[in-house]
Amino acid sequence: MLNMLRIGEVTEEMVDEFRQLSRPVTYTDGIEPTELYPLRQDVDRANESRLSALTTPEHRYLASDVPGCNANGDETSLDALETILGRLLAQQEVVLKVGAQVMLIKNVPDVDLVNGSQGLVVGFMTSQEASEEKITVLQVGRAEDRTVKYGESSDEARPQGDDKLWPLVKFTNGRTILCTPAEFTVNNFRGEAEATRRQIPLICAWAMSVHKSQGQTIERILDQFRIPKHMSRFRGQPAWKPWKCSILNHPVPWPIPGRWNFIVMPSALRAKSRWTRRKPLRFLEDSS
């Protein structure tokens, strides 16, 4: 249905099915749908406003950024490092409080959490305290991020910095996990690390940009399809990839428009049609 919506071919049956989702939203765990905005400054403004409204103490987490090497074997410059890491979801600084709504930006399959899982910060504790209470912790320093339950593993598996307070997050699936730093690496085309950021795998998630939501698996989402005036010429352009969202399992808290409101620019459809008709690139065969 979403693909048909993108190209403007919406039937009455589709509209009726969308309308069935328009009903009041109620969540008993206090985790709200993440609201999508087209512009990053709107996202920052919304998240900062909600975070500042919390009266609990704030905790700041600064990333550790390490340059690698580019495809030529030269060390990544500081300017290039900033540009490369600026494209990551992992932020250079993360500020959290108890009550903050967050989103996980790492896949942790062994506890049914994915990139896009939403949760609520319920406290802060050290890894030692997690060990004593046998709380599941996102483990660091491994090729693949996974979890470990302290009290059931060796001391050497504990994250470094046992005196540091890390955010304890309760996710929508009911799991409560202590989120310690993880590594986010960008590789060059040779497969070598070009830049690495070490940061807690969380971002504030009352709001998020449409661009950053691509590739996420978000369970609760709110998109009112706002388009700024200066971007009105892009209205209806079917360029944004759909994100994975279990929308049919959750109510939609805004009115679903009628069929005549689903408008797609003919020029956008023509451009998409020309693109899909393009022949695939032909690669030279190895003559050796």
UniProtKB/TrEMBL annotation:
Q: Where is the DNA helicase Pif1-like 2B domain?
A: 81-124
Recorded hits in Pfam families, A to Z, give: Pif1_2B_dom
Print the keywords alphabetically: ATP-binding, DNA damage, DNA repair, DNA-binding, Helicase, Hydrolase, Isomerase, Nucleotide-binding
Q: Could you tell me which InterPro entries the record lists for this protein?
A: P-loop_NTPase (IPR027417), Pif1-like_2B_dom (IPR049163), PIF1_helicase (IPR051055)
Extract the SUPFAM superfamilies matched here: P-loop containing nucleoside triphosphate hydrolases
Can you name this protein?
DNA helicase Pif1-like 2B domain-containing protein
Classification lineage = Eukaryota, Fungi, Dikarya, Basidiomycota, Agaricomycotina
